[in-house]
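Class, carefully examine what follows:
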Amino acid sequence: MQTEPAPEMDYFAALAALEWQLEMGADEAILDAPLNRYDLPDSAPAAAPRPQSPSAPAAAMPAVLDQAAADPVALARAAAGAAADLPALAQAIADFDLCDLKKGARSMVFADGNPAARVMVIGEAPGREEDLAGKPFVGPAGHLLDRMFAAIGLSRAAPDAGAALYITNVLPWRPPGNRAPNAAEIDMMRPFLARHVELADPDFLVLMGNPACQAALGQTGIAKLRGQWAEAFGRPALPMTHPAYLLRMPLAKREAWADLLDLRARLDAV
């Protein structure tokens, strides 16, 4: 009994399949033919060099480099502290190779808006649209964020610091499949975020969602934290629910509007 061959994909079906794989975090093409990685090589590898005797000079591998490689947080802290301005900080992050997220991301997403703004918004991490554009908050959640802050007279495009926004994320690289950042990633990149806040020197911080609160306050539980002013990186910080959550739960927009009005009142009072 003969079977009919499977129909070939048309252009639109192939494009939809590719987009689905990207959303799932696929970032590498695989060979058509299977590869058995357990096959033994045709020839035995060359013997490893004999270790040096204890009397050999220790300068070949300084202990300081070993310690730095074993402690990515310390290395991140040193790199962030050496950045004298925002362009230097962006370059320090781009050169930082110890966060595995960098290997699967297309772009390093640093910031957007006016660095002189009185309000600095901190999100969690780039999504697919942000990874493609190289800017934070450009997808549906970003469009909602722009509308929210426009309602209280703030915009990332405003040249005047009093009406401007400056926006960044805890992580500069997209996690696979848009998953939430984990604790190790947040701890590793926190020194860069702290230095970012220090160099931008805003009057107020807005912490969008749990990862931002974890990085800035060491706490999670945005349902309880939102609307409660705290101190983060030496300045007033307002936790708010993330715009992506508001898209899923429109009823929460009432609370977000109350938080925005509170922020506007603080700006007007100072």
The mean pLDDT is 87. The chain is about 45% helix and 10% strand.
